[in-house]
Write a structure and sequence with these properties.
Length: about 100
């Protein structure tokens, strides 16, 4: 295995290009590698954070859905009871002898 001491031509070219693009903090391949590794860590952290937000949103939507289903069930039962009472009242009226 060969060991190279000093800057490689491609490293100099890369640093020059980065400098031309306004990135003056990266002066060597080690700086570039460190930057890439820290960027990946930040990206992983952001992914985890977004996953957590999405999970919390899904849980909130599930909870809201359960509440809406319960509300609708209650409304349906009230309506059913009202209609049953009305039906029974109409049956009694129909069965009652006509007093006129």
């Amino acid at each position: 295995m060969a060991r190279i001491i000093g800057d490689l031509g491609s490293e100099k070219t890369l640093v020059k290009e980065l400098s031309n693009l306004g990135v003056s903090s990266l002066k060597s391949l080690a700086d570039v590698e460190e930057h890439l590794n820290s960027s990946e860590s930040r990206i992983d952290g952001l992914k985890k954070e977004e996953r957590k937000k999405v999970h919390e949103y899904i849980e909130a939507m599930k909870s809201e859905h359960r509440g809406l289903v319960a509300e609708k069930t209650e409304q349906r039962m009230k309506r059913f009871n009202l209609l049953t009472t009305e039906r029974d009242m109409l049956r009694k009226k129909a069965e009652a002898p006509d007093t006129h």
